[in-house]
Amino acid sequence: MIIGLVAGAVAFLATLIAAPIGGAVVGLGVFALVAGSVLGVQRLLTWAAGLGVFGLALAGYAGAAPEPLLVAAVALALAWDITDHGLSLGAHVGRDGETRRSVLVHAGMNVAVGAGSVAVVYGTYAVATGGQPVAALTLLLFGAVVLISVFR
Amino acid sequence: MSEAVAGRRAGAAASESDDEGDDAAEADVEPTVRDPMHPFETERWVGVAGAALVLIAVGVLTRQPGPVLAGAVGVGYGLYARFGDAPVATLTVERTVSDDTPEPGAEVTVTVRVEHVGDGRIGDVRLIDGVPPGLEVIDGPARLATALEPDASATMRYVVRAARGEHRWEAMRAITRSPAGSMERETRLEHDTRIVCTPELSAGSDLPLRGLTTQYHGSVSTDIGGSGVEFFATREYRRGDPLRRVDWNRRARTGELATLELREERAATVVLLIDAREPAYVAAEPSGATAVERSVEAAGQAFSALLAGGDRVGIATLGSPDCWLPPGAGTSHAVRGRTVLAADPALAPTPSDEPFHPSPWFRRFRRRLPADAQVLLFSPLVDRYPRTIARRIDAYGHLVTVLSPDVTTRSTPGERLVAYERRERIRTLRRAGIRVTEWGDRSFPAAVAGATRRWSR
Fold it and tell me: For the sheet containing B153-161, what is the strand order?
């Protein structure tokens, strides 16, 4: 819950730095995340995540720099993941159950995955900046999407 | 034991057949029987790929690198969500209780140690212990969420309040998730633990019985003249009457010989019939003792009091499963009665799942009931059936006394209605000549003492 809050705050600030309009929307999303986890409403969390993604898209449209946007994306994913995880723990174990270890491991995995993704994506971007960045990245992503489909 | 379970393990669990060796190594503790279920998708990450593609599309359309990169991170999460399966919880459970034969109301500390004996880490496992339904956890949740490396262990400790009966722990549920939480699997971990809680039968006060008795001597006053203590009648002297019962005062006054008749005191056969149907599992408050619990407590007091008075006492339950202790007397019978009241499944702290069929039950009960037996029916009287059954038993010539724990409350109109209906039922029973006594907050012996003053023989 606290990790989720911190991550949500980070997402909000990062997007705010990138583009104020997007930041406002992400802030709304984070507020919904908090409300959802306090009230224990999973649907609210899903809508909050959707709102956050919309905020990110808006910030991107407004011409945000890629670095804060990446941080915001990972932080948003972490915030949603931890609050949703906390909610499922609450359903299984109850509010007063001992859950710290489970939450920490889960958050650690999420951060590791986010950091790994950012490293790969940003590395590729930095290398490919000389050429046509967007087109090259899109092609790369097309490959990644094919990869996901194979996993399915 | 493990082999027997191996057959039940679904195909999804074929990969963990190598942990049986570990089970055999831990022969000193009770083995844990594992029953994994099929994993299923939690659908947590549904839509993450879509969201990623939307971001990428925004980036492509606006020729901005930012959203494209954010979307690419989203694709990374999408891959993460597909990574890994929910592992089978290859855990051994070791459950120890501080006291396996506690007194009722005693606090029993339960320590559960869970050890990961498989290989491969379990990043997310939620353990929900199968606390018996009749026990109340009063301290600490019987649940735990953690992550376990191979050979790591976790311990949880909680306190339950012991209640009458035999309590067997159900399977512990272990819910494991894949690292991203996209797959979930439940494994049932069976470890046999039980506690048996047998209350002492506290001796109650004398219970007023009705006049249906056996031919044996006992403590129930009858309307039969003979030898006894209390004056009953006088009659003409017959040859062979004992000299000490000749009415000498009358002889001196009138010159006639007369014999004093004294009220005979005889033993009764009593069957304590306890209403243990599902409707009888009601309590005045959510955490309070149910009517069945209070009936059993009162029946225990009646049982020991009647046995001490020389009567023959049996126990039966109104409900399923079947429970019947034929009337008897003596020390071994007292022990049997105590066991039945403490741990018979028919009187379990929670209602049984078996359906109750009134007609076959009544036929069976009547066949078993000795002809000279009277019945003490313990019932909260919150539905119509006990009233019917009391009148039917009474109609067959067995004198019935209804003893009813009052569990009704009067704070809402609905509760007042139930209480009113119950009062009406009691009134109907009394009109039909059946003795009824009820006890609410008062103790059972106090209520009986009060009723004894009221009832005329």
Answer: B91-97, B107-116, B153-161, B136-139
